[in-house]
User: Which sequence fits this backbone?
């Protein structure tokens, strides 16, 4: 065998060996890109979630007190936080202008009364016409009503307490000019009880909660105690300032301690209605906000698919998913942090 004939077979062997090596490297590289994951089978279940809310204590008889007529405030006899008694004089207006209005109405009434009496006699004597007599009668009635209105306004130129309670807020000061109906004081009947927690909720929680649902309330000032409450009011519109719906939870138990308006409270509401949804581990949820999040599912056990879901209640270990998994069969619950959409996966136990 010549040297030329010997070198040719060696060259062919080297080329084949190099090709096999590259194929092995590609296979090893493909295997290294496959991410091991754990999965769980998805199935809907009947869920009765607990909704967490927070708000402030107040009473069910808060009242904004104001003057019927406008004018200059003469005196305010209470301060914020003062205890008040039913019928107590709280504030007054300067009566100079109001008394002048009553005096004018009184004079107008007396004149209209004299005119009416005079026209009545003249009409009986056929001196004036029926129309003139009726006009005087109408003028007398109008003057009488104007006097009653002036006297009524004067009676509401002072503010008195409607019940025993406390002054929660004072909106104006002495000497200030206010218009008719402007709030002067905010009071409540805290001495009578009737405590409620007023809180705001989002539209999703609002739709899940019904009147008379049971709640458990805790007050930050008394961390070792909790109180039973029920949902007694659901607003039918959002608050223009906060943009949330308002709930009122009425506390059924008489507290052992004294509550104060404005104390901060938390409540756990158990809705009476159940819903069909998915419960998944908290670690399976990615990139979430208050309402939405993302999870990885697999349809063929070979690749991962990222899908958007709508969140329900969230606890320390689990998340309720209300929508987004209708067509999914398996959820990836481990290894999600290393995945992207369409990543190759390998299921492990």
Assistant:
């Amino acid at each position: 065998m010549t040297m030329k004939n010997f070198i040719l077979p060696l060259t062919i062997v080297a080329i084949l060996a190099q090709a096999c090596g590259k194929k092995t490297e590609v296979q090893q590289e493909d295997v290294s890109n496959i991410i091991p994951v754990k999965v769980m089978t998805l199935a809907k279940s009947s869920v009765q979630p607990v909704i967490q809310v927070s708000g402030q204590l107040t009473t069910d008889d808060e009242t904004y007190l104001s003057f019927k007529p406008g004018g200059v405030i003469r005196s305010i006899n209470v301060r914020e936080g003062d205890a008040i008694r039913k019928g107590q004089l709280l504030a007054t207006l300067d009566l100079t202008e109001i008394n002048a209005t009553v005096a004018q109405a009184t004079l107008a009434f007396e004149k209209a009364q004299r005119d009416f009496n005079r026209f009545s006699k003249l009409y009986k004597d056929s001196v004036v016409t029926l129309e003139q007599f009726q006009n005087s009668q109408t003028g007398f009635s109008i003057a009488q009503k104007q006097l009653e209105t002036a006297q009524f306004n004067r009676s509401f130129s002072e503010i008195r307490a409607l019940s025993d309670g406390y002054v929660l807020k004072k909106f104006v000061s002495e000497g200030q000019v206010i218009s008719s109906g402007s709030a002067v004081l905010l009071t409540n009947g805290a001495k009578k009880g009737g405590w409620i927690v007023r809180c705001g909720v989002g539209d999703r929680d609002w739709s899940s909660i019904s009147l008379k649902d049971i709640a458990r309330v805790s007050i930050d000032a008394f961390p070792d105690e909790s109180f039973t409450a029920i949902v007694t009011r659901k607003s039918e519109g959002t608050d223009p300032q906060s943009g949330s719906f308002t709930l009122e939870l009425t506390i059924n138990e008489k507290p052992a301690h004294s509550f104060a308006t404005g104390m901060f409270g938390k409540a756990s509401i158990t809705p009476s209605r159940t819903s069909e949804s998915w419960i998944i581990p908290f670690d399976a949820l990615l990139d979430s906000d208050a309402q939405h999040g993302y999870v990885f599912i697999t349809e063929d056990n070979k690749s991962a698919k990222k899908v958007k879901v709508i969140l329900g209640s969230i606890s320390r270990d689990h998340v309720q998913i209300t929508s987004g998994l209708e067509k999914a069969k398996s959820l990836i619950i481990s290894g999600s942090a290393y995945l992207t959409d369409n990543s190759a996966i390998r299921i492990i136990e």
